[in-house]
Amino acid sequence: MGHPLVGDSVYGRPSFPRGATPALRDELEHFSRQALHAHKLEFDHPISGRLVEVSVRPPPDFRALTEALRRDAREIDSD
């Protein structure tokens, strides 16, 4: 579709948002995997049929990337 995930080495290519700060560029360059995380998953258990819900916080590297994106957006908004 032309919108790869950050860190997608198969379909993506290294690129930066226009006007990205050096800090954000550094965070994006060193993110070593796809930026994909499911906060919550729900599914019917295949044997019992009961609804199973699994929820987990994003891992530290994902949270750091998210915060870098937020900081960058605030800096752009303040210009």
Write out key terms for the chains shown.
two-stranded antiparallel sheet; 13% strand; 79 residues; 2 helices; alpha+beta
Give a written overview of the molecule.
This protein is α+β, with helices and mostly antiparallel strands. It has helices at about 20-30, 60-79; strands at about 40-45, 50-55. It is about 35% helix and about 15% strand. The model has no long low-confidence stretch (mean pLDDT about 85).
The main β sheet shows up as:
2 strands, antiparallel
Helix content: 25-40%
Number of DSSP-assigned strands = 2
Numbering strands along the chain, what is their spatial order in the largest sheet? 1-2
Tell me the span between the first and last alpha carbons.
32 Å
Order of helices and strands: HEEH
Strand content: 5-15%
